[in-house]
Amino acid sequence: MTTKNVHMKIGEMKTATGLVKNLEVSIGKIVDDSWAEPMGPTPMPSISALRDWDMKLLTKYKPFYMPDCDLCCLCTYGKCDLTAGKRGACGLDIAAQSSRIVLIACSIGAATHTAHARHLVDHLIEKYGRNYPLDVGGLNVKVEAPVTRLVTGIRPKTLGDLAEVLDYCETQITHCLSAAHTGQEGNNLDFESKAFHAGRIDQVGMEVADIAQISALDFPKADPEAPLIEMGIGTVDTSKPVIMCIGHNVVPSVGIIDYMKENKLDGKIEVVGLCCTAFDNTRYYDRAKIVGPISWQLRFVRGGFADVVVLDEQCIRTDIFSEAERVKAPVIAASEKNCMGFKNRTNDPADEIVADLVSGKVPGVLILDPEKVGEVAVKVATKIAPIRRKYRVLPEIDEIKALAKTCRQCNMCQRSCPQDLSIPVALKAAAEGNMALLADLYEECIGCGRCEEACPVKLQIHSFIIKAGEKCMLEEKNYCRSGRGAVQDTEIRNVGSPIVLGEIPGILAVVGCANYPHGGKDVYDICREFALRRFIVVTSGCSAMSAGSYKNAEGKTLYEEFPGEFAAGGVLNVGSCVANSHIAGAAIKVANIFAKRNLRGNYEEIADYIHNRVGAVGLAWGAYSQKAASIAAGFWSLGIPVLVGPHGSKYRRMLLGRADKPENWEVYDARTGEKVNVGPAPEHLFQTVETPQEAMVAIAKLCMRPNDTWKGRSIKLSHYIDLHKRHYGCMPPDIHLFVRTLADVPMTMKDEIVKILEAKGWKETVIPDPTLLPRMIRKKKE
Amino acid sequence: MSCEPWQCAEIAATKKANPITKPEVAVAMIKKAERPILIVGSNAAERWLEGRQLIEYIIDFAKASKVPVVATAHMVGEFLKRGYEPAAFMSAMDIGNRLVDPEWQGIDGKGHPDLALFIALPYYMESLILCGLKHFAPNLKTMTLDNLYHPHASWSFPNATLEEWASNLKVMTQKFEGGQ
């Protein structure tokens, strides 16, 4: 920490001149200079401080806009039609408007993570004090907050230090969002640069949230052997009262778990979670269970499993209270951000609230005291479970058959389905008694319920699908490794060299939400493919759940099959959404620990290092949210490419390189200052891929970096070529762009590739010490 | 047949696709184009029409019309398996990005396409790309050969049944010299 608030309070002091009582003195900040690392050029950057760096990336990876909406309706001048070159009343064109929407999305995402962090930090300071020390991984983690150190120049040591970091984040997010006001920013690339900035801040906010909860709540501390957690609806013991927690903020769940433990009820009640709260529950209490990703809210509630539904924040269905009411499950809203219209009962006696919920006098309450949430949730679950007896609203098969006969085959369900599922055909079969087609939809359905909203005869189509797929649902019994948190410094030391030299073919981060095009199996298949190829596979969030939801031929889940180390062939779950910061942190630590580059306020140099040397790729196969946008933006600004699945095209802007333009792929050789063409490595910064096969080929290709040694490039090329041949049925057409010297060519393919190189007129080039920054050029030797 | 967006919320503002009332109209416009390309997405190997895979219809059409094919995703492998070599393959984003570049000289390097035909991409992806082209490629015409109405295209078939779709594709193929 570099600065401190100094606040002195003197109760009573006798001096030569008199008696002083109740004196409080605040003298602002003093500098704590115990951190010897010199300050870099951009500590706590403003929204334009890293603009030059952003523009370097945005020149290389130009935005490709797919506007998604032709209009702007953000001010009362509008609606403005921006079609095909028209400007709106404020002067904005569709490119700037599209990038403005990107900025707004990234600002929402950054604000959400940062507000989450603020709530956590304030709560934990209140409970444990400002001076509570941070401990992310004991002696194994000395660089406790790489993102924070890099962006802000602050080395946090205590919870109180984190509060100051958040002050900075909150200021920056306000500036980012303000730039989206009508009549502010007008240039699309400047909007993009500000979106990158929101992403940088988002990474800091996430890191603060996770290191605060890891430290104060004693989550696994950079532990490769974090416990394996039971996961899936089939693991829930429905003979017990079931408390279901949905969202991302663990604080109310901690209240529940603590109350259970204090009252020796922890073996008698099931605490299960959906979405990221599920992970953080298990990081606090390894007997908590994970139901599944965000998209399973309706199936779990309508299936009647939950006796009490506790809502914290983010990614919660906003109609979940009415769904819970249908199955007579009381709801406790526990976040100020998500009051759900319930009466605030925070100051009422717990037993009074319990009585109201159990009797059904009120369907839900707002309680903003996590300890009271714990007491009320446990008492309500215990009392109501024998009354509700897992009451559910799923129809019986005979009812589905009868109701399906009323289907008009109007197609509105399919036309409203984000997946374009063949629901009318399945309903027609169901009307004839064949439920197989409805059951087939279970895996691909993302649980949004739009089909029911569209149905003119009000068929409960989603419930039909759940019932038809019930056998599959109840057989979901898997394991997911609890979130391990950060990557150890020692792990970085072990893999730093092979990553930078390219001998570990890449780091694949499979992150984000569950808006998958064809179910979660694709996530499992992709993770397993690359783990078997000895990439480092990192997972987080709902993708980490999907990765663990399938088994190999021996009946082992991914987390049982592969070790949890940050090492070649490892599959490690870092944790919930906010733990994504550890993935960026690992890349940053490679630059710091392995390459000895200073972090402190030194963003541009470290991002340049990562972009040119660390073969990392993010895949958000089912990204849906604004938080996913801001997480991606944090990786873009570090120069790390991100792939999204087909639904990710709705983010409406890609950042694409042009492999066919050689002039775009020049870097400086830091040794000589000469410009060297390094080919399209990596080719894109943000790209939608259409199929899992395409994703696999793209991942292998995007792991190539200019700094790869010949040995590393040869390994990376062999994976790229192998996957390309398997999925595309032919040799990659761009192989010549990635071969710098003949030593790069994989030995076993030499004859075939040399012929291609000759046909393409390939010429040998050098392997530079690559940088995009002229200031990093060392003086040319005379 | 309906000229409403297949996915209900994919609405356009003031510039909407002209409906193609008969396959012969589409053929006339393709014949009129000097440098058409056909972009084929991953659903080509997923959809079945009258017992044949969609990709088989597309190969017949491409051979008859001689419109060069750009295969997206992993579709090149599906074409090669069937003995047809597409003119190019790249991601759907890459071909979209090249089409908005007025300097791009096409897949053969001889000039920018003047007509981009689309078929068999996921509806929402195709819709987004068409929207991007509507805004940023003002000199390019776009047409979908799907059975789903795409408002962001220049021309689109209305929503149609699989039978109607198969019929349209067959008619279009027959109208080109060498079509069967």
- What proportion strand of chain A? 5-15%
By DSSP, the count of extended strands of chain B is: 9
Strand fraction of chain B equals 15-25%
CATH class of the largest domain in chain A: Alpha Beta
Shape of chain B: globular
Distance between the termini of chain A: 43 Å
Sheet bearing the most strands of chain A, described? 8 strands, mixed
- What is the number of independent domains of chain A? 4
- What's the CATH architecture of the largest domain in chain A? 3-Layer(aba) Sandwich
C-alpha end-to-end distance of chain B: 26 Å
Largest sheet geometry of chain B: 7 strands, parallel
The radius of gyration computed from the alpha-carbon positions of chain B, rounded to a whole number of angstroms, is 15 Å
Any idea what the shape of chain A is?
globular
The unreliable regions of chain B are none
Write the layout of secondary structure elements.
The complex is a heterodimer of chains A (782) and B (180).
Chain A lengths: L2 E13 L2 E14 L19 H10 L1 E4 L5 E2 L7 E2 L12 H35 L17 H7 L6 H20 L9 H30 L10 E4 L10 E5 L4 H12 L7 E5 L1 H9 L4 E4 L4 H6 L5 E4 L8 H7 L4 E3 L16 H10 L4 E3 L3 H19 L8 H8 L7 H5 L6 H9 L4 H9 L5 H5 L6 H8 L1 H5 L3 E4 L7 H13 L5 E4 L10 H12 L3 E5 H7 L10 H4 L9 E5 L5 H14 L8 H11 L2 E5 L5 H12 L4 E3 L8 E4 L9 E4 L5 E3 L6 E5 L3 H11 L7 H19 L21 H11 L9 E2 L11
Parallel strand pairs in A: 7-8, 7-10, 8-9, 10-11, 11-12, 14-15, 14-17, 15-16, 17-18, 18-22
Antiparallel strand pairs in A: 1-2, 3-19, 4-5, 6-13, 19-22, 20-21, 20-23
Chain B lengths: L17 E2 L3 H10 L3 E5 L7 E2 L2 E2 H12 L3 E3 L3 H7 L6 E2 L2 H8 L15 E5 L3 H14 L4 E4 L10 E2 L5 H14 L5
Parallel strand pairs in B: 1-9, 2-5, 2-7, 5-6, 7-8, 8-9
Antiparallel strand pairs in B: 3-4
